[in-house]
Amino acid sequence: MNLVEAGSGEVVSRLEKEQSNPQADVVVTLPPFIQKADSQGLLVPSGIDTSAVPAAEKDAAGHYVPVVDNYLSFIANPAASPTPRTWDDLLSDQFKGKIQYSTPGQAGDGTAVLLLLQHLKGKDGALDYLADLQANNVGPSSSTGKLQPKVSNGELLVANGDVQMNLTSIADDGSKFDLFFPAAADGTRTTVALPYVMGLAKGAPRSEQGKQLMEFLLSEESQKTVADEALGMSVREDVRATAGESAPARALQGVQVWSPNWNDVLTELDSDVAAYQKATGS
Fold this sequence. Notes:
Blueprint: H1 8-17, E1 26-29, H2 33-39, E2 43-44, E3 65-68, E4 72-76, E5 99-100, H3 108-133, H4 148-152, E6 158-162, H5 163-173, E7 178-180, E8 190-192, E9 196-201, H6 207-218, H7 220-223, H8 226-230, H9 237-242, H10 247-251, E10 256-258, H11 262-280
Parallel strand pairs: 5-6, 8-10
Antiparallel strand pairs: 1-9, 2-9, 3-9, 4-6, 4-7
Helix pairs in contact: 1-2, 3-11
């Protein structure tokens, strides 16, 4: 199997560019980019059995389905002292030139930062906050994954990420950072549900093999390994019901999870990103 990894938005851009000579069979990305791919006609119904996945979490037309549940997080180098706990902490002078977050509109995790702040502060409040944060921000990044080693080696003190990717980096690469979820003024910590979602690519040159891969990834056997081996959370209701405690579940203890309407998000994404760029001068 050939695997190509890229940022969430870049995956869809690549899929679009390859339409004259399709290369991909299965597409995996984060919302709202999987919805964007579908709106551009880049996905086709897979026909696989998705009955174990809750109806609210998958496409009614069968164009895409989540494969691993995941959530927005932030990471901090242990050298950050005092350790950041709140959104306001990130505005401190101690983080000047030491914070970077992936770019909204390009990266799924970066887009989630903008959406979560809109949810917590309203659209204008989110833009005001991100404009203030810009004084500490290193600059744009189309890939969230590339920020992890920078935090681990101390080049950055804080970056955004997601629970599955960050826990995997700690387990597999020995990365030196801690996960946290910034708290609001009242102490409430909130994150965004950010599942990995897969779909069958239009014109897939090996569509049958692609369907088989999708079926395998959604199988009960595979999904039972998600928490311990992939450090994500299963999307199957039957597996969730019998799952024991896991590293991702422990990371999310005490954190409220917000699940956006991703089709609504997509409708306003371009205007939201344009407003973000204007507010931050990026």
